[in-house]
Each structure stands twice: as structure tokens, then as C-alpha cells.
Amino acid sequence: MSVLSIQSVSKSYGNIQALNQVSFDVPEGSVFGILGPNGSGKTTLLSIILDVLHADTGQFLWFGKEGSPDQRKKIGSLLETPNFYHYLTAVNNLKITQAISKRGDLNAIDEVLHTVNLHERKDSRFSSYSLGMKQRLAIAGALLGSPKVLVLDEPTNGLDPVGIAEIRNLIQELNRKGHTIIMASHLLDEVEKVCTHVAILNKGKLITTGKVDEVLTDEDMLEMSAPDNDILMQSLQNYPGLTSVKLEGGFVYAYFGKGLSSTAEINAFCFSKGITLSHLLLKKKRLEARFFELTGNESGDFSKRKTN
Ligand code: ATP
Fold first, then answer.
1. CA 13 to centroid of ligand 1, rounded, Å
2. Closest protein CA for atom 28 of ligand 1
3. Per-domain residue ranges for the chain?
4. 205 CB under 6 A from ligand 1?
5. Pocket test for ligand 1, best of 10, 12, 13, 54 (most atoms within 8 A of CB)
């Protein structure tokens, strides 16, 4: 069952196409990462599904229906850090959030402060909070009314490693409690650690979507060469389990599913075709390489910031 179905959504700002025919489904109970470099359209997409922006074309369904106030109550969101009052306590800030959003009641405030592990500090002023605590308070605000789905835009942006770990743990805890989480991120590392599912965007287009361990799976790569690499390429086309093959820099690179290649078997196969290999080396393809291959992005934009 999908909590959200996005169908052929496109959006342009003048002549900049921010989203181009994007379609994917978010399964119930998932932590769903929308992964892509800066400018790939993540915030635009989140703004559309939260009704902050209108799509030019396409549609999206929450819980199988087009948006209605009832559906909207099931969705909590955090697109930007909310404007909490610095001189007020956490609990008084949330009272204001609750009064404005009309989500939940006063008892809910205590509950969400417990959930985000800020209850002991509920009477401290917002100004005394660390960045991580401020972000957890913002998530507490989004949790008022106990929404089934939480939508977060780059929830760990700007936080130190401790704050990042706290938010990631909180996301996983909320997911265990039954919330579906949809989060944008430009960090491959983060999506691998936190998310169950992913949609990869690049320049406004959906590159791929699915379970994280399937989409970003490691691959076996064999680096090979023979006296005639063209004949080697041709012979390999029919090799069972081969996913792709390419010729680059004087080597033939053959790709297989994780753990599915055997140097002994491929050597025997080539020999049976009359090909004597002059070079055969098994290399594990790194996830980042797979990711760059998917997005065509060689700049390392996603992976420079390694986090815990
Ligand atoms: P970031 O991680 O930097 O926030 P993003 O993946 O969220 O990036 P968007 O913010 O959705 O991407 O931007 C997608 C494209 O649309 C970019 O080229 C951006 O410059 C452009 N864009 C976004 N908002 C506007 C706007 N209000 N006016 C014009 N262009 C915009």
C-alpha cells in the first residue's frame, strides 16, 4: 500500500525545468529518501506534495486520494526551520505552534516532547538549545496531531556529528513507532544509513527508485583483457548473470550482481570460446561509483561530507 503516489509531476520556473515527469510511489512504513545533488528538484517536489507549490502537470495522491483537509491532517512536515521565539521555553513555543496549526491538544505537547527526548528540557528557553535540540523541537512541532507521515527536507543539514546522529536515531525511532518518513537528502551516506527506500533525482528527472539495498547495491566488476577485446566483448554478451559490459582504456569491464561472478568460471568460459585472457581481476564496485554512474555526477558533490 502506498501512502503517496507521485504521477508524472513536472514543474518549471521560467525556463528552468526543476522537475520533469517524475513518478514514484512511497510505500507505507518506509523511510523514503529523495536523494540528489543541489538543484536536482528535491525541495520543489516536497513543496508540491505539501501544496506549497503547484505542479505544472501531473498529479499526486495521498493515501490513494487527491488532497483533502482530512488527508492533510495525516501529514506532518518540516520544509524550513520554523520560527521559534528565542526567549520562550520549548513548551511555550509548542503551545504557539499547536494554536496556529490546530493539530493535537495540550496533552500532545508533553507527548511529542517525550518522543523527541526534550521533555527534561521543556522549560528551558529556545535560545539555550543546541542546533540538534532546535531541530528536534521542530520535529516535535511537526509531530503534533500524530501524523502518519512525516515529510522532512534535509533534516540533518548544518548539524554537528552529535546532532546528526540524534536526528537519524529519532527518524528510525519514529519509523519503528509506525510513522512513514519521507526525507530529502543530498548525502548518499545518510540515505544508506537511514532509509529503506530511495528515489534518485538528477536535474529534475527520476533516475531510479526502489529499495535502498537493491538500488544502491554493490556489484561485482571483472576487469579483463584478451588479444582481441572486441571478440571478448561479443562472447561475454551471452554469459549468464552478466548485467553489463563495456570497453574502456584497453580493458573490458564486465558487471555482475553482488557475489555472482567467479573468475575461475569466466576464465573457463572464455577458454571454451577460444579466448585466452591476458588479464582477469575481480573488483568490488563501490556504492559511490554506482551512484555516480546513475546520476552522471562525477563531482563528488554527494559524498564529500562523510558523516557517522
Ligand atoms: P537544494 O539541495 O540546493 O535545495 P534541490 O534538489 O532541493 O536543491 P530545488 O531547490 O528544488 O532543488 O531546485 C531545482 C531547480 O529549480 C534549481 O535549478 C533551482 O535553481 C531552481 N529553482 C528553485 N526554486 C526556484 C525559484 N523560486 N525560482 C527560480 N528557480 C528556482
1. 9
2. 13
3. 2-215, 219-292
4. no
5. 13
Nearest CA to ligand 1 atom 27: 13
Residue 60 cell numbers, joined: 499526486
The amino acid present at 194, given as its one-letter code, is V
Q: What CATH fold (topology level) applies to the domain 2-215?
A: Rossmann fold (3.40.50)
Per-residue pLDDT, 285: 59
pLDDT digits (tens, 9 = 90+) for 197-241: 999 999 999 988 998 877 776 677 889 999 999 999 999 988 888
Pocket lining: 11 vs ligand 1, CB cutoff 6 Å: no
- Checking if the pLDDT of 250 tops 50, the result is yes
15, amino acid identity: N
Compute φ and ψ for 52, nearest 5 degrees: -80, -35
pLDDT in tens, 177-204: 999 999 999 988 899 889 999 999 999 9
How much is the average pLDDT of 21-32? Answer: 97
Question: Is residue 253 packed enough to be buried (19+ CB in 10 Å), middle (13-18) or exposed (0-12)?
Answer: middle
| Counts for the chain of helices (H) and strands (E), in that order | 11, 13
Look at the alpha carbons of 86, 91, 95, 97 in this order and tell me if their dihedral is positive or negative: positive
Q: Are 195 and 212 in contact (CB under 8 A)?
A: yes
CATH 3.30.70.100: does it fit domain 219-292? yes
Please, which pLDDT band fits residue 286 given cuts at 50, 70 and 90?
A: low
